[in-house]
């Protein structure tokens, strides 16, 4: 076994361990909120632009379900303009439903919406494996799928914010600031992912292990779906 191959296999195993550890740490919740953030959201009154930008950025960086989906989206995108296009579609989708969901006070069960988000990860991994063409003989519109799943991811963000019953005073600027923070966090996290993937793509093992990587992605999504549905039916 070559050194490059051994290194890649070690990387895959390490990634699996990290994903399993994250799921174990957060249990049924897809978005852990630390105690300090909880207290701030509960006690905050009025406009607080910078704190909400920070909270939004932190929420996205630690939102492993969103990041796993984005990893699937960009896995086979090798041109910068394609990455920008697909990420922009995802951003547009989750921005619309985040703002609309909170400002219109649309209530959706958090377990169910997070289960759909988990399914989006399964979907993207399956799509990357060519599952639709092999099993069903057609290829869904990938851009439309990213946009639609972005809408569901936005509702996932909205349900988390709604748990804290934010006061109406300053709600609009605070939610806009939170959304800006989400985009900042997404940009930073995605930047790190792209740097790591760019190094991996220099090796032949990238395409060789693409099946294993996307199977792992599907497995993580299935675990998330299972956790959330368990919480829904037993909670």
TrEMBL record:
The keyword Transmembrane helix applies. Pfam families: HupE_UreJ_2. It comes from the Bacteria. Keywords: Membrane, Transmembrane, Transmembrane helix. The keyword Transmembrane applies. The chain crosses the membrane at residues 53-78, 83-102, 108-126, 138-155, 175-200, 212-233. This is HupE/UreJ protein. It comes from Shewanella sediminis (strain HAW-EB3).
């Amino acid at each position: 076994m070559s050194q490059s191959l051994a290194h890649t296999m070690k990387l895959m195993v390490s990634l699996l361990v990290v994903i399993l550890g994250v799921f174990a740490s957060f249990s049924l919740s897809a978005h852990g909120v630390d105690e300090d953030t909880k207290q701030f959201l509960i006690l905050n009154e009025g406009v607080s632009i910078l704190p909400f930008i920070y909270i939004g950025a932190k929420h996205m960086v630690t939102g492993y379900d969103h990041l796993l989906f984005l990893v699937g989206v960009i896995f086979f995108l090798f041109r910068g303009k394609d990455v920008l296009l697909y990420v922009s579609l995802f951003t547009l989708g989750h921005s619309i439903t985040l703002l609309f969901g909170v400002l219109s006070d649309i209530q959706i069960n958090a377990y169910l919406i997070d289960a759909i988000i988990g399914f989006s990860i399964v979907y993207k991994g399956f799509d990357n494996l060519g599952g639709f063409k092999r099993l069903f003989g057609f290829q869904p519109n990938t851009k439309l799928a990213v946009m639609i799943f972005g809408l569901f991811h936005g509702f996932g963000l909205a349900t988390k914010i709604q748990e804290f019953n934010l006061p109406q005073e300053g709600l609009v600027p605070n939610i806009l600031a939170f959304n800006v923070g989400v985009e900042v966090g997404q940009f930073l996290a995605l930047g790190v992912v792209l740097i790591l993937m760019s190094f991996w793509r220099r090796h032949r093992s990238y395409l060789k292990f693409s099946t294993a990587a996307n199977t792992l992605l599907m497995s993580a999504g299935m675990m998330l779906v299972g956790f959330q549905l368990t919480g829904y039916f037993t909670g």
